[in-house]
Design brief:
CATH superfamily of the largest domain in chain A: Neutral Protease Domain 2
Number of domains of chain B: 1
Strand order of the largest sheet of chain B: 4-3-1-2-5
Number of helices of chain B: 2
Strand order of the largest sheet of chain A: 2-1-3-5-4
Structural class of chain B: alpha+beta
Helix content of chain B: 10-25%
Number of strands of chain B: 5
Distance between the termini of chain A: 87 Å
Structural class of chain A: alpha/beta
Oligomer: heterodimer
Low-confidence stretches of chain B: 1-5
CATH class of the largest domain in chain A: Mainly Alpha
Strand content of chain B: 25-35%
Mean pLDDT of chain A: 83
Number of helices of chain A: 13
Distance between the termini of chain B: 46 Å
Order of helices and strands of chain B: EEHEEHE
C-alpha cells in the first residue's frame, strides 16, 4: 500500500517536473520565435525586461546566459523602438502592448475647456469617453467628432490603437487663449484656439486640422522626425496627408471629389484655405491680410530658410508643399480613395524603422517607392504612380 | 550718474509672434520706461527654456528693442508686467507677406 502511494507520488512529482520543463522549453521557444522572427541570430533580438527576467530563470542554460549578457541588454535598449514597430499585431497583443482581443479596443478621449486662458493645467474637463456627457461647446463637439474620426481612421485601416498604438488617452483642449489663431500638438495633447474672428475662425472647424494635430503625435511615436529643415517639412507633410485622408474618409470623398484643401473653414472667406495639397501655393492668393500662400509644389521652389523661430525652423510649413504635392499626384494617378492604396504606402513609410529622424525628401521618395513595390509589386501601377508623384514634385 | 538706475528714454519695444499652423508673423509695438537693470532682469526671467522641445505648429514670441531681438516665453512674464504684455499681445497685427 505504502509502495503504491510512493509510486503515485513519484509519478505525480515526475509529471510535474516533466510538465514544468516542457512549459519552460515551450515558453522559451515561443518567446524566441516571437522575438527572432526577423533575425538569424537570437542574440540580435530584443526582449522586453519582464521577458528577460523570465528567460534568466529558464532551465535552459544557453537562454539564461543570453539573458544576463550585458551586451545583449544594451542592445535591447538601443533597438526597443525598432522591435516594437516591427512586431505584428499578434506579437504586440502577446506582449501586452495593445488590448488582448483585437477589435475590442475603444478610443479614450478627454476634452477640456481652457476658458480663453493659457494655463492648460487649469482647464476644465467638459467631456470624456467614460461619461459621454452632453456638451454645448461647438468647439468641443468639433474635436470629439474629429478625434473620433482620426482614431477610427488609424484603427480601421491600420489596426493602430490611438496615437502611440498603445491606446493613449487623447487629450484635446479648446478655447485656448483669447482670439488665438492656431492649433498645436505639444507632445502630449492637442490645443485649439478660437481664431481672431477676422482672418481665422475656430481651429476646430475642420476635421483635417484635428487629424493633422493628432498625426503629429503619431509621427512623434514613430520616426519622430526632427522639426527642422527637410525632416520637419516631412513631419508637417505627414500631418497634412493623414489629415486630408481623415477628412476624405469622413466625407467619403475619392481623389476626384476631394478639393484637397486643409482648413477651408478655419480660414474665413470662400476663396481661402490654409493649405492645398493639389496645388501648393494657391490656398490663398492676394489675401488682404496674409498676401500669398508661400508653399512651393516642386523642388525648384524649395526655400532655404534659417533654422530659427522666425525662419519656421527652416520652412517646415512652407517646403511641406513639395512632399504634399508628390502624395497628391500619386493618389490621383492611382484613383479611387486615397486611403486605400496611397495611404497604405505612406503609412508603411511613416511606421518603417528605416525612416530616419533626419530624413530628407529623397529618403521618403525611396521608401515610398520601396513600400509601393512591396505592397503592390514591382512595376505595378501603384509603384509607377508613386514614382510619377515624386517626378512631378521634382524630387 | 549710475546708468543702472537711470531711466532709459521712452524705449520702444516690439512683441513679435511667429510660427503656427501656417507661418504668420504678427507684431505689436509700445513705448516703455524701463531702466537698463529692469530690462536685463526682465529678459532673464522671461527667456525660454532651451531644453523644451519644439512644439509642433506652436507659436513663438520674441521681444525686440533697439537693434536687439530675443526669444521670450510669455508664460514666464512676472505679474508686474502682465498688463503690458497682455496689451501687446492683444494688439498683435499680421505682417503681410510680400
Amino acid at each position: 500500500m505504502i509502495k503504491i502511494i510512493i509510486q503515485k507520488q513519484f509519478a505525480a512529482k515526475n509529471s510535474f517536473f516533466v510538465f514544468r520543463n516542457f512549459l519552460n522549453l515551450y515558453l522559451s521557444a515561443k518567446i524566441l520565435n516571437i522575438m527572432c522572427k526577423n533575425h538569424y541570430n537570437p542574440i540580435h533580438c530584443i526582449i522586453p525586461p519582464y521577458m528577460l527576467a523570465r528567460l534568466m530563470e529558464s532551465g535552459n542554460k544557453r537562454i539564461a546566459d543570453l539573458a544576463v549578457n550585458s551586451n545583449f541588454r544594451s542592445l535591447r535598449f538601443r533597438h526597443d523602438r525598432i522591435f516594437f514597430q516591427k512586431a505584428s499585431l499578434q506579437e504586440k497583443t502577446i506582449l501586452g502592448l495593445i488590448g488582448k482581443e483585437s477589435g475590442k479596443e475603444t478610443m479614450q478621449m478627454e476634452v477640456y475647456d481652457c476658458k480663453q486662458k493659457t494655463d492648460l493645467s487649469g482647464a476644465i474637463l467638459i467631456w470624456d469617453t467614460k461619461t459621454n456627457q452632453k456638451i454645448t461647446s461647438v468647439a468641443g463637439k468639433n474635436v470629439i467628432k474629429g478625434g473620433k474620426a482620426s482614431w477610427d481612421f488609424y484603427w480601421q485601416l491600420f489596426g493602430r490603437n490611438s496615437i502611440d498604438n498603445k491606446g493613449l488617452l487623447i487629450k484635446q483642449y479648446v478655447h485656448y487663449d483669447k482670439g488665438m489663431d492656431n492649433a498645436y500638438w505639444d507632445g502630449r495633447r492637442m490645443v485649439y484656439g478660437d481664431g481672431d474672428g477676422t482672418v481665422f475662425t475656430s481651429f476646430t472647424s475642420d476635421i483635417d486640422v484635428i487629424g493633422h494635430e493628432l498625426t503629429h503625435g503619431v509621427t512623434e511615436s514613430e520616426a519622430n522626425l526632427d522639426y527642422e529643415n527637410q525632416a520637419g517639412a516631412l513631419n508637417e507633410s505627414f500631418s497634412d496627408i493623414f489629415g486630408i485622408m481623415i477628412k476624405q474618409k469622413s466625407y467619403n470623398q475619392d481623389v476626384k471629389k476631394s478639393n484637397w484643401l486643409i482648413g477651408e473653414r478655419v480660414m474665413i472667406g470662400p476663396k481661402y484655405a490654409l493649405r492645398s495639397l493639389k496645388a501648393p501655393g494657391t490656398a490663398y492668393i492676394n489675401h488682404p491680410d496674409l498676401g500669398d500662400d508661400p508653399q512651393p509644389a516642386t523642388m525648384d521652389g524649395y526655400q532655404n530658410l534659417p533654422n530659427t523661430q522666425s525662419g519656421d525652423w527652416g520652412g517646415v510649413h512652407i517646403n511641406s508643399g513639395i512632399p504634399n504635392f508628390a502624395f497628391y499626384v500619386a493618389a490621383f494617378n492611382m484613383g479611387g480613395y486615397a486611403w486605400e492604396k496611397t495611404g497604405r504606402i505612406w503609412y508603411a513609410v511613416l511606421t518603417d524603422t528605416n525612416l530616419a529622424q533626419t530624413a530628407k525628401f529623397t529618403d521618403v521618395k525611396n521608401l515610398t517607392i520601396f513600400q509601393a513595390e512591396k505592397l503592390f509589386g514591382i512595376n505595378s501601377q501603384e509603384s509607377k504612380a508613386v514614382k510619377q508623384g515624386w517626378t512631378e514634385a521634382k524630387v | 550718474m549710475d546708468r543702472g538706475k537711470s531711466l532709459t528714454e521712452a524705449m520702444k519695444i516690439k512683441l513679435i509672434r511667429t510660427g503656427g499652423f501656417i507661418p504668420v508673423t504678427k507684431s505689436a509695438e509700445t513705448e516703455v520706461s524701463l531702466t537698463d537693470k529692469e530690462l536685463v532682469s526682465l529678459l532673464e526671467i522671461i527667456q525660454p527654456d532651451p531644453a523644451v522641445s519644439r512644439i509642433k505648429d506652436g507659436n513663438y514670441y520674441e521681444l525686440s528693442f533697439g537693434t536687439r531681438s530675443t526669444p521670450i516665453d510669455l508664460e514666464k512674464v512676472p505679474d508686474e508686467y502682465k498688463a503690458l504684455f497682455s496689451k501687446l499681445k492683444s494688439d498683435l497685427k499680421i505682417i503681410k507677406r510680400r
